[in-house]
Amino acid sequence: MKQFILKVSGGGLLLLTILHLATLMTPYYWGNESVVAKFNYFEAEQESFDIIFLGSSRFYFQIDPTTVDQTLDNNFHSFNMASAAVYVPEMYYLYERLLPSLAEQDVKYAVLELQRIDAPTETEQTRKNYFLTYDLLSLALKSIWQSPHWEKYGYQSTITKNYLIGYMHNFLKLNFRGVIDYWYQSYHTDIKPVGYTGFVVEDNDESFHEYRAQIRTNFLENDLALFQTTHEAVKQLYAPNEHDLHLDQVHLAKINELIEQSENTGVHLIFVLPPRLFPEYYTELLPLWQEIPPQHRIDLANPYLYPQFYSLDYSLDTVHLTLNGALLFSESLANELKPIITENDG
């Protein structure tokens, strides 16, 4: 019996080692189909870029690199690497592995969306766990357990369970089917044509505009009251009053670590606080933003400085802007980048 157990254990360890090695031979972004084409394009070095953007749909839908470049007098060439539902810690996983390529390709600026730590569900799915290393698991759990928000609602145990399930799926390679899918599905060979910017419009056909029109109609008919309530709550957070907001020291330490890693490779890292988040997000993100060094932060969420981003005229849904709103957002982002670039290059 002892020999049988040893054989089974040895065989299991060998299989796990093989699966890990096979995963290492696959691009680090294999688990998220929506980012593959963009990362393939960047890694293929078909163009040289000075600035990259990375985040969720708030960047993917709202940053047009062409507008950014034009606002920067075409002295810079930027690329939107954001995609829907890319949240922390996945965003940090992607960025840290992208960083050597940024340095090799002489990218000067990396602009990341400032986000709170995600509270995931359904972490058995490869898309939700392929990025969960021990370090990122530790970051997430430490952050969740010191969060007054999650403590208030009693979700800490549930979030912890979901993270642990996801981590074990990744560690034991129960998600290996995703690696197989990566190599056998056509999307892994998808290389966009030269001139691709990564903006959402370029990844969709003509039906995209009709689809977005339906989203806006639904928003105006069903979600207007929620949006107005949220907007007022955000204005209160930005009002010149005393707010006793909790600072996530764990997350701040990670942000500072990323800034240092970036500087060591010649990349200037900037975090952008986007508009139209729910108030509970800003209660976590505003204290973080205030502690990030000024040359590494931009706030585009302030409803007093940027009321246009909360205007119904530019509202696609509760959290996103229309295409016209996205162009305004891109222009404002570029204008906020100008003094940072001037000081950094001076």
Globally, the shape reads: globular
* Beta-strand segment tally: 5
Helix content: 40-55%
State Rg: 21 Å
Proportion of residues in extended strands: 5-15%
Major sheet attributes: 5 strands, parallel
Derived from helix and strand composition plus strand pairing, the structural class reads: alpha/beta
Question: What descriptive keywords fit this protein?
Answer:
346 residues, alpha/beta, five-stranded parallel beta sheet
Notes on the structure:
By secondary structure, the protein is α/β, with parallel strands linked by helices. It is built from 13 helices and five strands. It has a five-stranded parallel sheet, sandwiched between helices. The longest helix has about 30 residues, at about 205-240. The radius of gyration is 21 Å and the shape is globular.
